[in-house]
Amino acid sequence: MSPSDPNQDQQPGRIPESLIDAALDGELCDRMSDEIAHALRYDKQRRAELLETTEAIRSMRDEDLGVPDFQLSVLNALDKQDKFIPRTLRKSVRLGRLAIAAGFLLGLMGVAALQSLYPRLTSISAPETPVLNVAESVKDDAAHIAQQVEPAIETARANLSPLSSFIGAPRQSQNISVTLTTETRTDSGELTRLLSEYETRHVIVLGRAPTDNSGHAPFLVSFAGTDSVWLVANQPHPAAPEPEDEPLPELP
Amino acid sequence: MERAIEHDLIRRAITGERAAAGELIRAHQRSVYAYILRMSGKPELAEDVVQEAFVRVLANIHRFDFRFRFSTWLFTIARRLYMNAIAKSRPAYDTDFVGSMGAPGTAMPEDRSLDDERSTVHKDAIQRALMELSDEQREIIVLFHQLDWPIALIASHLDMPEGTVKSHLHRGRRRLRLIFQQHKGLAEQFQGITQGIGA
Asked: What pTM, to 2 d.p., does this model score?
């Protein structure tokens, strides 16, 4: 029969195990504890069990576990994290922290004061300037950009110097007035002459050339100063007459 | 340690006073080390866990909630670190141990002196008995009987109903008694044999 067998508790004169547990748990009043101590004189098996249990508990409590001193190792580990400051420096560190905080606050207040007095002073965005003359501004911007791009073009040309025989010298852009005729539109005559004069191989004409009664189509032609690609002639010459609408064909 | 004194030490540690932190360590190192050592049975592991627990607690001492006990916080951190260490080391430990036994150049138990062995067997009877209990039984017995924690505090620490704590305690105590008697008997037999050899 095992000691924990519940049938044991049924035997006459046995102290219930639950009472022993309660006593060991410290849950019994003094009077009950005295009664159990008295009863244990007559219940040898329970007494033996209780003695063995208390011996095990005492052995556990009394054993010298050889506890190492953790102070040094723990404090050294904490020192590496700057958690503790020596007593002598503590006041200075505290004052230093206060001074830094006060300085920061004063700085913020100063910036706020400046902001209220001179709003533009602390603005980090570019000042807004109204655009007064769009056309002039575009011209100026274009000239400015051309000026900025020029060195890069020069560099590119210098790099392409072995190919100089194939690349013509830069020429100024210019506007000339051309009167396109039927002959011009067949790739001969006036445009052919212009192509030869300006050493240009291609002509791009956008739009349809209007014709007047004489068969001439005056156009404003813009020449760009490059070798191979030039002009866009898509604007009628100021002197050209307004094109007339073609009459609609009669319906059958 | 009285609660008022402990709170004073904690307040001083929060302000960065090293001596107060040292005092807190000295006051609690024995109990927390005993707890982890009894749980693990491995002094090296217990040392590592306890040191790390103190470092973590003291590094975060400004977060301490004065409604609770410092020891409860420390034990909770130590327990978590112990669980993590066990979870990490279990497979490696078993493999290493089995693999190393009998390997050339490794120290076998026979290599130790008989006196050492006798002393260890006698001293380890209770620890061996504790290690044969379930984790819950062992932990509750150590907290209740070795560290004198009340049932309610153990229940809170282990997040367990008080009835369950008591049930583990009673069963564990019965098993501990039986196993301890067996180990003690073995230790006494061993002692008798070694004394016979010595004579």
From this structure: 0.55
